[in-house]
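Following up on my earlier message about iron/sulfur cluster. Here are the inputs again, as you asked, copied directly from the submission form:
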Amino acid sequence: MTDRYARPLRDLRLSVLDRCNLRCTYCMPEESLDGRDFLPTSRLMSDAELERLVRLFVGLGVHKVRLTGGEPLLRPGFADLVRRLAAIEGVEDLALTTNAILLPRLAADLAQAGLGRITISLDSMDESVFSTMSGNRGSVGEVLAGIDAAVAAGFSQLKVNTVVQRGVNDQSVIGLVDHFRGSGHTVRLIEFMDVGNINHWSHDQVVPSAELLRVIHQRWPVKPVAYQAAGETARRYEFLDGSGEIGFISSVSEPFCGDCTRARVTADGVFYSCLFSSNGTTLRPLLRSGMSDEALLQHIHGLWRKRDERYSESRNGGGRSSSKVEMFRMGG
Ligand code: SAM
Ligand code: SF4
Ligand code: SF4
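Thanks, got it. Here's what our run produced:
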């Protein structure tokens, strides 16, 4: 099953909640949130609906499911949801993206529930830079405690996502890379993206991965990792001194739409076939209408077949849309 550019459906990013305990300026800047309501609980998909949806997507070729948000750990009963999804035959890779603040409370339950992998977001080791970027909420210390809790619960080899913004945290990237070198965890430096409409994105604030790679290579020589799986978002490099890997997610300077196999569903059940889509398709009424699995499969199949998005590749040709869905709603 492929879309108009012969891309198969392999990954599902499922947003389980649009709320968050941080206010990262590149995602959910506090001052821009005025009047923007979060989803009421009554509009969230239930655990049973999410489980059914994941089963359907598995039937369409999905093997990787990433739980995201907003902040997924804020969803009440999140570990129970993980347990249900982990038990679905065909879900080979069940992953979570989190800001880690609540991991000291939840990591052990999540491991026990069958969660496979955790990606943690951390933008700087410097408390004041962190605070500037998180909207003055949370702290580096809390994120590190979350990382420790994940490791203690058995999640080794974490991924650490760092959004790099020129003039904000670019000067502290080396310190962060230094901290995680040799830890078994892999830092992935992400170019600041023009997702949503409220994060004041400007091209000037994007630090191209090539520039960061040069700086890092000067300090600690690296070489590309020989095997890079298709559909992988990060370009991977390994440190020549054996201290592990570093990844670059370069959706602005080197878009990777050509092998994008990801579908997204928001916490209220809207299907999107691209992170930058303006229009999605609501699945929740169909799930609640008594529609059969077979009919639902046909419906989602049809949505994927007509998928023709390549937003990042057309960005520089004027492909910017003014009414994109916010990252915390769409799911990162
Ligand atoms: N709250 C969780 C977290 O921060 O890990 C999960 C949701 S968050 C939207 C998922 C990822 O998107 C995070 O790693 C975050 O850094 C990234 N992100 C958010 N806004 C972004 C932007 N404008 N450009 C690049 N990455 C962004
Ligand atoms: Fe919350 Fe994640 Fe967005 Fe930061 S990036 S505001 S932690 S959803
Ligand atoms: Fe996939 Fe859209 Fe991102 Fe391109 S811009 S890689 S199609 S999500």
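One observation from looking it over: The mean pLDDT is 94. Hope that helps, and feel free to reply on this thread.
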